[in-house]
Amino acid sequence: MPSHFLSKPVDVSKFGVIFAGAQKNVGSAGVTVVIVSDDQLGFALRECPSVLEYKVQAGNSSLYNTPPCFSIYIMGWVLEWIKNSGGAVAMEKLSSIKSKIFYEIIDNSQGFYSCPVEPQNRSKMNIPFCIGNVKGDDALEKRFLDKTLELSMLSMKGHRSVGGIQASLNHHQIPL
Asked: Which of 25, 123, 132, 147 is deepest in the core (most CB within 10 A)?
């Protein structure tokens, strides 16, 4: 599960393994959440290092190797905030509200902003867009990105597959 992890309720019982690079919604860069059903614990790829065997990890309370303590600590704070804020149901509502506002601005800009993703396929978490026209205007986008940096809005340069600008609507802007 990529960037939509914990942005909506998910019935984990329908999956044998959930592997989520969860840094956008749950914690700092590099944190990964793995949820494994009991029937998948014994499954291992041929010649898989023991550090990657779920049964070994589960048998050692996920402490078989040195864990990324800071990332786990931050993730604990974020998960607590999500829980206290209403859980995944509340996060889905929040994602819908924020993305709706953003897409309405894009769609009502009379072409000044454009989103290269068809409405039925749009993400509620990562919103790519171009400025100036459908392909983007390099000069306008550069001015926009320069201003975002002045305002401490980081990493808004476009997604590698579509270019332009990308806004990530994460949940974890919480006071610690």
From this structure: 25
